[in-house]
Amino acid sequence: MAHSTDPTIILGGGFTGLFTALHLSKHNYSQPTLLIDQQERFSFNPLLYEFLSGEMQDNQVWPYYKEILKNHDVKFLQDTVTRIDLDRRQVKLASGLRYTYKYLVLALGSTLNYFGVEGAKEHSFAFRNGKHAVTLAEHLRNCFCRVTQTPDPEKRRALTTVVIVGGGSSGVELAATLADILPYWYSVLGGDPQEIRVVILERDTKILGSRENNQNSLQDTAQKALAERNVPVELLLGAKVYSVDPKRIEFQYQGQFESISTATVIWTAGVTTLPIIKELPIPDDKRDRQGRLHVTSTLQLPDFPKVFAGGDCAAMAENPLPPTAQVAYQQGYAIARNLKALSEGKEPSPANVKLRGTLMKLGLDESAAYLQDRYYFKGRVGHFIRQTSYLELLPTPMYYNLKSTAEWLVEAIFQQYSTENNLTGVGAMSRH
Ligand SMILES: Cc1cc2nc3c(=O)[nH]c(=O)nc-3n(C[C@H](O)[C@H](O)[C@H](O)COP(=O)(O)OP(=O)(O)OC[C@H]3O[C@@H](n4cnc5c(N)ncnc54)[C@H](O)[C@@H]3O)c2cc1C
Question: Pick from 326, 40, 17, 277: which is nearest to 169 by CA?
Answer without folding.
Answer: 326
